[in-house]
Amino acid sequence: MAPEQRISDAEREQLVERLGGNLTAGRLTIDEFDQRVARVYRAVTVDEALRVFDDLPAVTVPQPARDPAPGRRLPTHQRVEWSAWLGIGGLNVAIWAVVSLATASWVYPWPIWVLGPWGLVLLGRTVLGIEGGGCGPRSRTHREHAHPASFAYPKVIVGGSSRSPS
């Protein structure tokens, strides 16, 4: 950022994030934070915006820890799904084993109907990378790149004439 250049919205957002870091570190009160954010958004040049940091120490952004095996770790939601499958599956197998032992006879292995289909769906989603629709960043990216015509409003016929709703 050159000091005498006009400041962009992206640069303002970066500075507000830095102020947020100082707020969470306890260097600023909420009121001071609000005042400084307002000054950043009112600033015309980079130099004006940087003046809000005059009495604050330089904040170093910690580097994220490197993953020892990049690309091999499951996303958090899939780890949760697999943990649930394993926990519930273990509980079902334990109940089946207790019932089989208590009756002193072999009981039909009904847990396969709980574990099998659910496990196959999870395995397919994990291997193929298929995710649910939802509101996550992946589905948002898909919607942003989809063909605009696929989201066009249908024509509505009102009183014999067709028009698009507005």
Q: Between the first and last Cα atoms, what is the distance in angstroms?
A: 42 Å
Please report the number of helical segments.
Answer: 6
> Which of globular, elongated, flat, extended, rod-shaped describes the shape?
elongated
Would you report the number of β strands? 2
Element order: H for helix, E for strand: HHHHHHEE
Main sheet: strands, sense, barrel: 2 strands, antiparallel
| Gyration radius, in Å | 28 Å
Strand content: under 5%
Assembly state: single chain
In what order do the strands lie side by side in the largest sheet?
1-2
Which blocks of ≥5 consecutive residues have pLDDT under 50?
Answer: none
Helix content percent band: 40-55%
Derived structural class: mainly alpha
Mean pLDDT, to the nearest integer, reads 79
Describe the model:
Among the domains are: 45 residues; 53 residues. Strand 1 and strand 2 form a beta hairpin. Helix 1 runs antiparallel to helix 2 and helix 4 runs antiparallel to helix 5. The chain has 166 residues and is mainly alpha-helical. The chain is built from six helices and two strands; from the N terminus they run ααααααββ. The two termini are 42 Å apart. The chain is elongated, with a radius of gyration of 28 Å. The mean pLDDT is 79. It has a two-stranded antiparallel ribbon with strand order 1-2. Helix content is 54%, strand content 4%. InterPro entries: DUF1707_SHOCT-like. This is DUF1707 domain-containing protein. Keywords: Membrane, Transmembrane, Transmembrane helix.
